[in-house]
Amino acid sequence: MEGILKRIAEKFRDYRVPGYYKKFDYRWTMVVDLDMCNGCGACVVACRAENNSATVGKEECRKGRALNWIRIERYVEGEYPDIKVKFIPIMCQNCSSAPCEIGCPVYATYHNQDGLNVQVYNRCVGTFTCATYCPYDVRRFNWFTYKWDKPLDEQLNPDLTVREMGVMEKCTFCIQRIRVAKDRAKDEKREIKDGEVKPACVQTCPTGALVFGDLNDPESSVSRMARNPRRYRLLEELNTDPSVIYLKRVMAEGPSEREG
Amino acid sequence: MEEKKNNKFTYREVNEDVINFMTKTGPLYYIILAVMGVSAVTLFFLPWLYQVYVGQGVTGLNVPVLWGVYLVNFVFWVGIAHAGTLISAMLYITKTPWRRAVARGAETMTLFAIVLVGLFVFTHMGRPWNLYWTIPYPNHRRLWTSFQSPLTFDVFAISTYLTSSAIFLYFGMIPDLASLKHHATGWRKHLYSILSLGWRGTDRQWHVQGRATMFFSSFVLPLVVSVHSIVAWDFALSIVPGYSKTIFAPYFVTGALLSGFAGVVIMLSVLRWACPVFKKYITEMHYDRMGLVMLFISLVWSYLTAMEVITGLYADNTFEWEHIKYKILSTPSMQLFILMIFSNTLLPLVLMVKKVRNCAVSMFAVSLFVLIGMWLERYLIVPNALSRKFLPWMWRDYCPSWVEVSITAGAVLFFATMFMASIKIFPVISIFEVKEDAGIPMEKEGH
Amino acid sequence: MRTTVLGLFKYVDRLLSASEKLKGEGFSVTIISPVPLVHEIEHIEGEKKSLLRYFTLFGGVLGFLFGTVLALGTSALYVMPRGGRPIFAATPTLIISYESTILFGVIMTLLGFFAIAGLPYFEGMPHFKGEAQCPEAEIDSFGLIIEDAGGDKWRYIEGVLKECGASEVRKLED
Q1: What share of chain C is helix, strand, coil (3-state, %, to 5)?
Q2: Fewest C-beta in 10 Å: which of B137, B232, C114, C137?
Q3: So what's the ipTM on this one?
Q4: pLDDT by residue (tens digit) across B397-413?
Q5: Is the pTM of this model over 0.90?
């Protein structure tokens, strides 16, 4: 009894203060250089292939229920006729103060030791709260029991599960790859090296617009890029503390509120 | 201030009226009950089974509008559930005499409304067969529930409310069942004898009964407020524009009371229609008081509605602007908004006229509009705010599918079926309280 | 052999004066009525306190502790960071405790009511005394039960009841 109380008191000291997760081993972060993104959509395809995303069929896709964990949004800069179409890939921002996490009653989404916002499919009961609270609308729901079109059913990734009807899913920063790298690093008794882990989208990006790494390591490439004056984070003013950092050169003309 | 006593009936008459209403049922009642029951199953349970089997995809939900009509109904029925407890509890504490005849019916309504609330939690979920995961209990998976989630607050609030209102309803019924067992025959006699637990009505029993009612009332009253505040926090604890508003807790509570009182008026009208004898107990005076309460709550509601919009405008926040523009100026919402203002603010103003308040038909009509308006209020908050979240790329309109519409309609019928069946089994008029209403017989006037 | 006298009254003030008189002479008197006469009895005898409040208080305190321990304890057993919020958070704990205070309070009040009112009260139960059954007193009459009225007491009690205006006096023996 005393032991339990002692343990609780110890945990209380450690976890009472918000922001304790900064003490965690890693803080996985993705940097997206928007000036290098050409909107080719390779990341979307790679993500689908890696993460066993189901194909929902034409009709559902038209409704916008495609299970894309990363999406490429377009926007236009400048005044006609002098305009430029720009792209911004949006995936789960793995917020440190994630609004989705407090919404879930069953701990299906929580924060893990690597600073990742994790979704546990088996625990999900489908209350939709996480996706409702999410300001980035990156969560996708399995509306039906989906079948994979041939021959896609023969290329499922064995490293992660498929999701059943009624659960929420989202980008995990390819947690299965992080897992493998951590295991390997543990076997070799070392930390994960910078650039050792690459989510599918980062691996596939032809222009190198996506970079992935550990923000806790001050020498990693993401840490160096995070100090770039072009940096901003999506909807940072909402205090969600996202783990995805966007780099963007601000155009000379026109006001911009998000200059870093 | 003691109201004028209602002396138009004797004690024995009350018992006889209540038992006659329960045992002597015309074929019309059974036909209506059967038709409603069958339609409730067809409209509510069959589409729901279909949805459980096929998936939530049969609804009109889509990212980002993931809280649709089911949650609108959830909030709506929590609201309906509120008036019952308020009438029983608050009016008991304040010793308002006119509660006595209507309290039992309102409590019965409360119980069935909460049953529907539970059903709508089920229909809303992606994997309803896992609902028990939201309940904290020691299990082999060593999993607990997240006590920071507003949905867990909901689980606690709704289950507490269900338990408390069921206890309150049954507790108040014990003396009546004891009284009725002397009139009833057959299975009713057995049922009432068992359920009345051998109540004899001794001075000691009545004394503790009165104390217990007072304690129940004092518990249930803060519970009413907290339950709907917690329902409001489901929305207000998010960061979504149109949801994240500090005004939501009082706003939702007020709205709940408005719709709840309207629901009680409709219930009383149905009761008076089903059993004209009850007009002795549920009189024009009751309509009059209910109308005054509704008028008052409607004015408070209107103020809060105005504040909800105005504080949003004053904040001058881009996201809030988009939300309000969508809510008030875009095509389907604008018409709904106007209808809501008409039925919740403008129409209840006619209740200022005493003639309107005393007329069963006009009260019924106003209440029906209020119920529609209150449903629209929730509709304009729940799915509507999600249509305009932060990133314009994910703005999407929402339209309920036939499954959602059918389940919504079926729920109303299911509620009516449960209510109409239950009032034939359990006394819907609180016998001992109505007798109190008639006055304690004294040889000499006053004491 | 126990003898019980049952007097039925139509008027409450009559009943109360009979009850007062007999109580003053040391008889054990029980009033049974179809409506609560709490107010009327307290008007004569002064306010009575009920043990029920201890049940309610106990339930409330127990509920509050239950809610607090549940919310904080399960967080301690199962440390899961969520949304950057503290693991041991005050506000949600208070909300849970608030609800469980009410839940336990209501349940304990009901149990206390059963205990004090002696319910359920069926034949064959240890505390079932087989008192006089009086259906009228559950509908529209007010009954006065006087226990231990054997022998010559019965005549006297009948006289008092009749004098006070009882509409009917019954002698019950078992």
Answers
A1: 50, 15, 35
A2: B137
A3: 0.89
A4: 999 999 999 999 999 99
A5: yes
